[in-house]
Design brief:
With about 600 residues, the chain is an alpha/beta fold. Helices cover about 35% and strands about 25% of the residues. Bound molecules: 2-deoxy-2-amino glucitol-6-phosphate.
């Protein structure tokens, strides 16, 4: 996702900004830019693609004097990855960089346009710089103008702004997107959206809280929240880049599990309106003539498709089938023109999925990709793409990519239900309410993580794991089992709970571990009786449910019991943490498990 850097001082401003952006590359981006205020001039450079392109563009530009600069790597959300849409965005005399999404940008843009402001980009960010200049024109005070600007913004943001009308300061604000400000022993000031950009530069840092805003000049940082000036809570900055990228977590996978709340907010932002779902990338005409949906994917992406196929049939009442891409390719599939072919892929490079997509395209089907990497091969081939906005996922075992795929597909099922009139506006509003709460649902609480850490020691042996569930919890069981086997090397299977008695129950004994997904809002009694059957055969049961289950050997009580998707996301986190803790106890390399690669670009 996007990255931000900023600097005030007399060292080489350009190099410091480019260096900081380099450290943020791991988060993923599709364009980058910097703006430098030195003496009376602001120089700005932008480039699409890799940072190298920006480095080349700025090669003949140098900075020598005391000054300041802001920089940004952009992962496109509103508008394509073009130079015009890359940050910094400019007004008449100011430049801004921004992470997050300004939810009310359309309303603000209309207001500014009606006052004669000309917009150059398709981004939500550009409203910030124009708002600031509008308030500056009336108030003639940059600090007051910045405060008024921030008051008007709704949504998530981390913002840095520089302006020719105040050549000493960088203005900043943070709400919902991370932002850090720090200083070195000379009083030079550094900003970053993550520690990694500040390592080796700042000596002490302040992690801004939501609602914080302020300004900084050489040797001075002022932070306000709700009109009140805050004490500066400075902390020493650790010096190791890899651990900074891991943000204090033991493994990237662990960090990525914890990041799910933030990335799910990114996934839904700008797409979930009060009464409807909207995708900038889609229009209703794209679905004309579509009578059925075919999902195609591999691994975790297949599991997310399998889960959401239930929603497409239930909500949008559209026949939906799901195929594993490596099977699909060689089965001479019957491809009908009224089918929308949807591929799901984190990397956008998985060979089997890519080839299946080409087959669908060559057969004249409309194609849509659900993907995390813009400009990947799959994105380039599909007619349309919905980006999942998970940011770079480093752990080979996919976590946040799965969460965001499910979220995008769930939103898409509601979008289709709306088009087809299979759900009322009231029903869709109800679902939207639940969607808005999902980022809170996946926040990892210390108590839960501690419990799973302790409990994991009992699950390091045995002759196998069965993850069982029904309906959407069956694909979640598949995904839970996949996570465990990938990183613990223990045998694990996902199974539909009702299917156990048709064979696998023969394996049941005390060394067979059953991870039972027992949501309250969907077929609770049915799953319960399936788990009772296993318990009667002495299988060891770890029950995950909001309802106490007396036959469980171990029990993790969940909080949500009102909506299947809330239960789904909460249980997803539990299965991820369980796999993580078992793997750590076994001493495995969690992020790079044996025999696996992050992106499978061969057959
Ligand atoms: C999941 O943990 C995997 N590492 C793997 O199953 C992965 O989901 C699969 O290879 C598909 O990758 P993609 O989403 O990048 O296409």
């Amino acid at each position: 996702m996007c990255g931000i850097v900023g600097y005030i001082g007399s060292d080489n401003i350009k190099e410091i900004l480019l260096d900081g952006l380099k450290e943020l590359e791991y988060r993923g981006y599709d364009s980058a830019g910097i703006a430098i205020l030195e003496e009376d001039e602001i120089n700005s450079f932008k480039a699409v693609g890799k940072l190298k392109n920006l480095v080349d563009k700025t090669a003949s530009f140098s900075t020598n004097a005391q000054g300041m600069g802001i920089g940004h790597t952009r992962w496109a959300t509103h508008g394509k990855p073009t130079e015009l849409n890359a940050h910094p965005h400019l007004g008449e005399f100011s430049y801004v960089v921004h992470n997050g999404i300004i939810e009310n940008y359309q309303e603000l843009k209309k207001e500014l346009q009606s006052e004669g402001v000309n917009f150059l980009s398709q981004t939500d960010t550009e409203v910030i710089v124009h708002l600031f200049e509008k308030y500056y024109h009336t108030l003639q005070d940059p600090k007051k103008a910045f405060v008024e600007t921030v008051k008007r913004l709704k949504g998530a943001y981390a913002i840095l702004l520089i302006t020719k009308v105040d050549k000493d300061r960088i203005f900043f604000a943070k709400n919902g997107s991370p932002m850090i400000v720090g200083n070195d022993e000379n009083g030079d000031i550094y900003f970053g959206s993550s520690d990694a950009a500040l390592i080796g530069k700042a000596k002490e840092v302040i992690y801004l809280d939501d609602g914080d805003y302020g300004w900084s000049s050489l040797g001075n940082i002022e932070i306000y929240n709700d009109g009140t000036k805050k004490e500066l809570n400075k902390k020493p900055l650790i010096g190791d880049k890899v651990s900074a990228q891991k943000g204090g977590f033991r493994f990237f996978m662990e960090k990525e599990i914890y990041e799910q709340s933030e990335v799910l907010s990114d996934t839904i932002m700008g797409r979930v309106l009060d009464e409807e779902i909207k995708f900038e990338e889609l229009d209703k005409s794209f679905f004309e003539g579509i009578e059925r949906i075919q999902f195609c994917a591999c691994g975790t992406s297949y599991n997310s498709a399998l889960a959401c196929a239930y929603l497409f049939e239930r909500d949008a009442k559209i026949p939906t089938s799901v195929e594993i891409a490596s099977e699909f390719r060689y089965k001479d599939p019957l491809l009908q023109k009224d089918t929308l072919f949807i591929v799901i892929s984190q990397s956008g490079e998985t060979a089997d999925t890519l080839e299946a997509l080409k087959m669908a395209r060559d057969a004249g089907l409309k194609t849509l990709s659900i993907c995390n990497v813009d400009n990947s091969s799959i994105v380039r081939i599909a007619d349309r793409t919905l980006l999942t906005r998970a940011g770079i996922e480093k752990g080979v075992a996919s976590t946040k990519a799965f969460a965001t795929q499910v979220m995008v597909l769930w939103m898409l099922s509601l979008y289709l239900a709306d088009i087809k009139g299979t759900m009322s506006r009231e029903e869709i509003k109800g679902e939207i309410e639940v969607i808005r709460h999902i980022p809170k649902t996946v926040v990892v609480e210390d108590r839960l993580h501690e419990k799973i850490k302790r409990l994991s020691k009992r699950y390091l042996h045995g002759h196998g794991f069965f993850y069982i569930g029904r309906d959407i919890f069956y694909p979640l069981a598949l995904e839970g089992a996949l996570k465990l086997k990938e990183i613990s090397y223990l045998h694990a299977e996902g199974y539909p709970a009702g299917e156990m008695k048709h064979g696998p129950i023969a394996l049941a004994d005390s060394e067979l571990f059953t991870i039972a997904l027992m949501p309250k809002s969907l077929h609770y009694d049915k799953v319960k009786s399936n788990v009772e059957e296993l318990s009667a055969r002495d299988a060891t049961i770890l029950a995950i449910s909001p309802e106490e289950f007396e036959l469980a050997d171990d029990f993790i009580k969940t909080k949500h019991a009102d909506h299947p998707m809330s239960e789904f996301f909460e249980m997803m986190v539990i299965t991820q943490l369980l796999a993580l803790e078992v793997s750590i106890r076994l001493g495995n390399d969690v992020d790079m498990p044996r025999n696996l690669a992050k992106s499978v670009t061969v057959e």
